[in-house]
Amino acid sequence: MRLGIVGLPNVGKSTLFNAITKAGAAVANYAFCTIDPNVGVVAVPDPRLDKLSEMYHPEKYTPATIEFVDIAGLVRGASKGEGLGNKFLANIREVDAIVHVVRCFDDSDVMHVDGQTDPARDIETINLELILSDMEYMERRIDKTRKMLKGGDKKFQAELEVQEKILACLESGKSARTLTWEEDEKPYLRDLFLLTIKPVLYVANIAEDALAGPEPDYVATVRAIAATEDAEVVTISAKIEEEISVLEDEERALFLQDLGLEESGLDKIIKAGYHLLGLMSFLTAGPTEVRAWTIKRGTKAPQAAGKIHSDFERGFIRAEVVNFHDLMASGTYAAAREKGQVRSEGKEYVMQDGDVVLFRFNV
């Protein structure tokens, strides 16, 4: 999962990026990896892996990971190349979902680029830049499709209709993700690298002293906008996340407890990201390695096996599956098998979150 963090200047975007990448590395004992100056890989905290590790004492512990991209250079006019607009737009096309950080606090010491806090205006500013960029992109695609249609190939008619539907939506000031699609239209979306069709997670960045009390009115504004786009919303304090990021696990837990928080902002963002993209994890375990694998909900066993290696999918015979909680209750894999909790599943089995799996295959 690759998440792009966007936002106007001085909304807490880079503070959040720096905090969650440090914290993510510490949570699951996964070495922080900098791919380039604005990309960080963090481990997905998963207590189930910790329990499996206690059971198997493996040589290797491999959590699922998320790549966070701190996308820089967004200002009004980015779609026309203002600031680092072109770089920003190129980076965002490569992510699976957008984490849109929105300033929801007042602070006279932190200048707002537009003079005062206004979440609705800020969201509109960024959305407009994405819409304008997509409009220019779709106009070029439509011209190309029309030329192909003039060549006499009628198969391009349906593709043109989908493209014109998107352009009309964008011209009305709405993002492409607000559209609904028939099944026969969806294949035409696969090669359209639209910015405004990507799922969005709004991160409302609130003041430290607002975490324990009722949500600020600014957050209600963000939630109302998100509801029109089927987007997710989480509230965090980037400053608090920054403080948490330098603490050890035990200190972090106590710090959160003192604040009356059940989980960190990173945990919230990861959970929301998985839900937004329809993702889940299955687990593999043994003395060599315990590992979490991220797949789409609804994935069948052979395709899940293919996440490990293409040969596993090609030569799939069956999946030996045990529910994580059943395995823990039984104490060992052998005990779970004796109790009949290890099931033999075939090619039509739909994977479930937390399945502990051994794939049988033959190539």
Q: Overview of this structure, please?
A:
The protein is α/β, with parallel strands linked by helices. The protein has helices at 13-27, 47-56, 85-92, 119-150, 156-171, 217-229, 238-244, 249-259, 265-277, 301-308, 310-314, 324-330, 333-338; strands spanning 2-6, 33-36, 39-43, 60-62, 65-70, 97-103, 200-205, 232-236, 279-284, 289-296, 316-323, 343-345, 355-361. Strand 7 (200-205), helix 6 and strand 8 (232-236) form a beta-alpha-beta unit. The two termini are 30 Å apart. The model is unreliable at 23-37 (pLDDT under 50).
Overall average residue pLDDT: 87
Specify the structural class.
alpha/beta
Spatially, the strands of the biggest sheet line up as 2-3-5-1-6-7-8
Low-confidence stretches: 23-37
Rounded to the nearest angstrom, the distance between the terminal CA atoms is: 30 Å
Query: What profile does the largest beta sheet have?
Result: 7 strands, mixed
Q: Helix count?
A: 13
- How much β-strand is present in the residues? 15-25%
Count the strands?
Answer: 13
Order of helices and strands: EHEEHEEHEHHEHEHHHEEHHEHHEE
Radius of gyration equals 23 Å
Helical residues, percent? 40-55%
Silhouette: flat
